[in-house]
Amino acid sequence: MPCRVAGTTCRVAGTPCRVAAVAEERASVAVGSRLMPGSRVERCLKRDVISRCYNGLVRGMFRVGFSDAQCGFKAITRAAARELLPLVEDNGWFFDTELLLEAERLGHRIVDVPVEWREDADSRVRVVATAWGDLKGLLRMRWRRLVGPGEKGIRPG
Predict the structure, then answer these.
(1) Is residue 80 part of a domain?
(2) Cβ contacts of residue 68 below 8 Å, gap of 6+?
(3) Could you tell me if residue 111 is left (phi over 0), alpha (psi between -120 and 50 degrees) or otherwise beta?
(4) pLDDT of 81-98, one tens digit each?
(5) pTM for this one?
(6) Is 153 within the bounds of a domain?
(7) How many domains does the chain have?
(8) Active site residue 112
């Protein structure tokens, strides 16, 4: 069944078997990925390049195992949600990335799920403003890892 996510139509390929990993607690988090084999993606070159660069930056800064920080589809166990949600400060577009970075940092098993993704030509996402907010969020998270979790209130720049 399609779900409306960030101005995009997203269908989760192989949902029952992939999300079953979360339901059966073989993984704490399942995350949709437009970058996995088996995913079918229709979007403009500009957004594809921006997304790939952002995900490359996330992998480079944090050495994570998941492939797509902002697809929009997430499934999470109740126990993981109880542990992770209080740690997430952002309530905007960076929320997805922050949730996944915290899950990875705390050792939760994250599984990537291929998706069918079709860009909405009428999307209202402000790409430049969103990218700037995401970059600030990444720097905040990196700073927190450098100085330790007790220094949560200190933010770069």
Answers:
(1) yes
(2) 31, 32, 33, 34, 35, 36, 51, 55, 112
(3) beta
(4) 999 999 999 998 899 999
(5) 0.79
(6) no
(7) 1
(8) no
Residue 157: both structure tokens together: 């720049």
Give residue 59's domain range: 3-127
To the nearest whole number, what is the mean pLDDT of the chain? Answer: 80
Cα radius of gyration rounded to whole Å, the chain? 15
The position carrying tokens 């993704």 is 117
Nearest to 137, CA basis, from 157, 109, 114: 157
Report how far residue 98's alpha carbon sits from residue 109's, in angstroms, rounded to the nearest whole number: 15
Please indicate, yes or no, if residue 7 is contained in any of the structural domains. yes
Does residue 138 lie in a domain region? no
What beta strand segments (E) does the chain contain? 3-5, 8-12, 29-33, 40-42, 74-76, 110-119
pLDDT tens digits, one per residue of 44-75 = 888 889 889 999 999 999 999 999 998 877 88
Return the higher-pLDDT residue of 126 and 138: 138
Active-site hit among 68, 96, 112, 134: 96
Res. 20 pLDDT band, cuts 50 70 90: low
Q: Which two tokens stand for residue 60?
A: 């480079």
Report the SS3 class of residue 46.
Answer: helix
